[in-house]
Amino acid sequence: MEITFEYIKMKNFKNHADFSSNMGAITNIYGRNGAGKSSIGDAVTWLLYGTDQMGSKLEVKPIDQPDAETAVTLKILVAGKEVLLGRAQNKTAKYFINEVPEKATAFNEYVETLFDKDLFLSMFNPIYFFTQNWKEQRAQVLRYVDEPLNSEVFAEMAEIQAKLLQEHLKKHSLDDLEKVHKDRFKKRDVDYTKANERLATLQEQLEKEQEGKESIDLTAIKAEIDSLAKERDSLDEEYHKASAAIQKRNALLSQIDFKREEAMKQMKALESIKKEPIEENCRTCGQGLNEEAINAVKQDMKKRFSEGVERGKQLQAELNVLKEQLEELPEVEMIDTRKKSAELDERIYPLMAKRDAAARIGRLETEIWLASENKANVLKERNESQELIDSIKVFRNKQAEVMVKKVDSLFTTISVRLFEQLKNGEMKETFEIEMDGKPYSKLSTAEKIKCGLEMVEVLSRQSGVIVPTFVDNAESILKYTAPAGQLITAKVKAGDLKVEIKEEAKEVAS
């Protein structure tokens, strides 16, 4: 979209009581210092934004007429259509679009539809762009520059790093991937230190365990222990068998003695019954017993004797059974195996100590192997994260380089510094314009204007917006490439204010 100025009128604006002028493809304004050349540019920005050309607050009232109403009218051509913009201010501001009064919000909204404020000021005044904060300058230039595609950046990287990064970017964004692996690297770095310390501790323990010890054949030691333990168990088993047999024999002997004693008692009881006299008188009253009572006593004695005999036979039979059982038991000689067993234990215990030492060494060797594996795995993960972090750093650096090439390709004499490399190799965003190797701050007035005009050309080409450009102090430049839009110059020249209009192509102005 192209916007041109056709006519401007100022009333009571700074030192202009009443000024009006048409504008052409080139509008040259001449006059001595203080004649009001710069005020014409300020009138345009005051009308649009209420500021001077640098975007600062502006006092527009003439010093000698504080109560006068200030007014600026600007006829512009927008895409072939004429629009008349106006602003007047005494105590309050008034706005007009095509002479129709409008509220400030409606006026401002209309202006915003034409162009972005910073874009307009940067293209209208070649110096304005460089007065902004570097971040604003950077954002304004990059607004119209496409960020490099990943494929463009990968093409600039080493193949192995590009492939590594491409694979991981399938799951995470670059920023998230960097966060993940910076966190993992930090943790694995701590884990690696701990794993190293753990391995060193285990190796030290192994050295102490092996110190002064001969080489141990664990298999042979276990076989010898098993053999000796088997021999000792055999002795114990033999001892327990003999002990059990003796206990059984002694139990039978005890039973035989008990039965024999019981049988002797039974025999004595029978002898007693035999010798028992038959009482012919009652033991209670002393009266003589009749024959029937005496027979009853005799029958009782006979019965008790018969039962005693049967009981004696039974006891003898039981005694004979026990004797037979005793005869069937083999004679067992009790052998004291404790001494032999103790001798075997004396041989087993040192072997068990060696076995346990070998087992501890074996466990330590296993733990060392596991610790070594863990250390290697932790180191691998740590190095993988470091490799990815380095690849991301390279990606960002290459991305910055590609972006710089893209931006540099927009300019002819200007070079742009978008990044600065930190000591750790990372790129930090910055923005600095240079011309012929000199930073903008070191340029002369003429060089700054030339630099600004080239920036105007780039912003216009990239945004697709063409607006007039006002070059103040134009007398300081002998030759420069004119901008794509209207050119308005202000040059110091003896005499009163004078406006000269040229309707001609303007490849080069002088």
TrEMBL record:
Sorted UniProt keywords: Coiled coil
Coiled coil: 192-245
Name of this protein: Uncharacterized protein
Originating species: Domibacillus antri
UniProt lineage: Bacteria, Bacillati, Bacillota, Bacilli, Bacillales
